[in-house]
Each structure stands twice: as structure tokens, then as C-alpha cells.
Please model this.
Amino acid sequence: MPRVQEHPEHPEGGRKYGAYQIEIYRDGILHNRLPTVTCDSNKLEEQAKKFLGARSFNYVAGGAGERATMDANRLAFRQWKMIPRMLRPTTHRDLRVELFGQTFESPLLIAPVGVQTIFHPDKETGMAEMATQIGLPYILSTAASSSIEEVAKANGDGARWFQLYWPQDNEITKSLLHRAKSNGYKVLIVTLDTWALAWRPADLDNAYLPFASGIGDQIGFSDPVFRAKFAAKHDNKTPEDDISLASREWEADVFSGAAHTWEELELIKQAWDGPIVLKGIQHVEDAKKAVEMGIQGIVVSNHGGRQLDGAIGSLEVLPEIVEAVGDKLTVLFDSGVRTGVDVIKALCLGAKGVLIGR
Model:
């Protein structure tokens, strides 16, 4: 088998990602060990379906409406083509990127995916631990099945960011941000497109909403302000005493159906003294408004097609947004990413980092 060569010019601490391919061949040829997870991105969904229950699979694989936005995301990537150049100095590839004052080994970030306990018992804590091992920033979802503190402990000295589903209750919002900041989360991502849950047929057909049974509510249930308000309202009950009732109250605050406003971002800015990133930007004017509001970054995203059916593919609007504001704030990207080539395309079109999720 060919040996992975050591290059003195390789960036210090950089990982030789190509060695993974050699490792797969070596394990198969010498030890008859094949990959547990398929290396074919087009077969990942099929493989996951074999191991997940119907409700868990539909939750992670489904999208809004007829999944037209999901289709648009993939079509946007297919419409951009690579034109390779030869005999270039590409032997020593430096994938490092600086985001909000911190240097990372690659431009990849682990996107905030909620309710991970329905996919694997290791849930968010396992994912956060793995993120540290492979050198990627881990973004914790508000809809997690692990608490802010548990994930921070599992993540250790890794880089971690916190994603906020913005509650209507300002005291609870401030409490969540205080907990995140106190536990070493450096960047705040505020998701703007999910103040109400979308029409998701795959979940509706099974009448499945994990939050209703307390799954994905752990950050709320473990919050001292939410617990105090719940106890005061319900004869000193804890969320664990009545999970169904607590779930309804948490959902009513986080996915209330009442949208926030640009002006309300002042509360977030006052409560969080680190970088703030707005996730769900799809229009140039919204990107410009983020600059006007003094926001440090945006994620060009349509929530992977899970919120608005019939929306434009995120990659389609990325170049226009980068041209308008790319020199004024940090532009990140997600939605529709399946392969390394997809990541390259997003970077070529101006994204500084790419979130990978479901």
C-alpha cells in the first residue's frame, strides 16, 4: 500500500485528510474491514433508513411541503461546475480559516442539529466530543436533548458555539445566553426562520413532534429561569413532574408563532458580548440590514429546506449576498451540502465557512 508522505511545508498541526482514504483501503485489503458508514453520499439516506425508526428517519430526512426547497438546494449545486487547472502548486494544501478571531483547521463547522437522541444514544454530547477529536467547531442547538453544561463538558477544550431559537420571554433568553457564555461558547448563532414550525408532511403523517414528549427540550428544562417560572405557575412543580405540560410551555415560548423584529436584536447585543451571527438570511436587503445593526456574521441558509417550501436554493443567492456585504461581515453557508465538492463550490462563491448537518 502507498504510504502517506510527510511534507515539512504542511501547516503546523494540520491534518492530512487524504490519509483517511488510504486508511480505508488498508483496512479492507489487509484486515477485511469495510467502512461502517457508506462513502457514497447518495447512499447515506438509504443506509440511515435501515437503522433508524420511521419517525426518527422522517424527522431528519423530511422537509417542508413537497420538499421543493430541498430540491432547489441540490439543483443550485449541480448548476455550478468545476473547471480544474493543472500543474499548479497544490501539493501542500492549507485549509485553515480564521473566523471571529480564531483559527480553525478547516472551513467546516458542525451545524446545529436538534434532538440528536432520536438518532443515537450518544446524542449531542457524543457529537461534541467527536468534534473536538477532529478539530471542528461544534454548534449546539437550542432544541438539544443534552444541556448546555453537559455538551460543554463533553466538548472539553474544543471550539463550541451556541445556536439560539429565540424565546419570547426576555428573561429566559438572557438566562440561556448567560449559561452559554459561562460555559465557553464563543459565538452566538441566532436562527431567524423558525419562530414557528413549518408544514412537514413526513412528521405530520406520523403525528410526530419529539418536543411534545420532552425530547429536544433539555436546554429549556434545565434552565433555572424557566424552571422558576414553571414552578411559580404550577404549584412548585418541576418540568420532570409534568413533562407534557412543561413541553407545551417551552414550545409556546420558543416556537410561539410570533416573529421577532430587527429592533429586538438590541436585547441580544446587550446580553451577549461576543460575535453574533444571524442564521436564515436569503435576501440581500436582509444581509445589508444585518450590517446596519452591527452584526458580525450571517449564515446564508434556508434551514436545509425544512421551513419554507418553494424558497430559493441558498447557493443561488450566496454570490449576490457576498458581493453586497462580504467585506463588512463574515458570511457562512449551509443548506444542501452533501460532499466536499459542494463545500469547495460554496467557498469559491464567497462563503468563509460551511456548516454540515443532516
Remarks:
- Residues 19-31 form the longest helix (13 residues).
